[in-house]
Batch of 2 targets.
Target 1
Amino acid sequence: MEWTVQDLGALGEFVGSVVVLVTLVHIALQVRQSNRLAVAASYQARTDSNIELISILLSSPGGTSTVTALFENQPLSQEQQGFTDWYSEANFVYFENNHFQHTLGLVDGEDWQATRKSITRILTKDAVRDYWARNSHTYRESFQSEVDKILNRIGAD
């Protein structure tokens, strides 16, 4: 079989169309990955600022004694309760970030399981459960669901 100029032109158009399609798919995947990384970086910046907040809170007068009272489930003064709310918020922002990055595939399952253990540990504290009950609506629904599963498991134990 001999190829005519028309046959070669049609083949060229077909190959060109396939190359354009492959290029578009490749660009779409790159844009998607770039967007995911940008969102993850935003969450990471939020977490970094909250970790800095925890450091400031813990180094403030009464910070370590409040955390001690919190982890021993002792009654808290109004000032200690306010401190505990800030401490809880900073921790839950960090936990939510870790959950979000896990859902994006940027945090592996082992790290997420370690975070779940930390969430479980902190939710055994009365003041932290009270914080969650009052403020859970301020977090992503998928994260709320994860924390609620942990709370249900703690309640069942």
Note: The CA atoms of residues 15 and 116 lie 51 Å apart.
Target 2
Amino acid sequence: MKAKRYIIILLFLSIISCRTAENEKSYQFDENGISREVLENYLERSITMVYFLMPDYVERNGNYPYYRDDIRMIKETGAKFIGRAIYCWGGESLLNNTEFWDKARKIVNEMHAFDPDIVFQACLFEVITEDVNNVPVPEWVFNDFNLPVEQRNFSYDAMLNDDGIMVNHWGRSSVPDISKQETQLWFYFLAGSYINVGCEAFH
């Protein structure tokens, strides 16, 4: 019995020691860059959690029932980098929904209140559908590109390659041509919107 007690005590002390060492690791970086040590610390605590910041819109199939379990898992595992937490793959008019952005921001704020070092990754994927025609170009996008402000939506056709490369690549969706200014406006809009809800990494 004494031997078992000693083993339990040693295991307990080992767990405490590991947690103490983990708490002493640095996750600090700024606009000047990130050190190799801090980068490796984040990599050790990285996890892919697709749609984590948009649980009500998982593949547009409605509410995801395990959302609170995911939050609990992040908190209990000490995850620091949440990959693919939010992105758009078609169905672009969803981005017009203010509740969509408010919910993502609320989740980020909740997690940062628990651990301000958590980094959320958003994805800028190489796909557009004709639904982009329903998304207005915000004034700040025009301003940041030094373009005249006008009231219009993004143009699907204006993002397509002139030679038909990757057009209708996935049936009714295409790979936008990044050399087109309209495509640059689109990705800038996506990136800025994700940053505004608290994402600090992109894929």
Note: Residues 2-23 form the longest helix (22 residues).
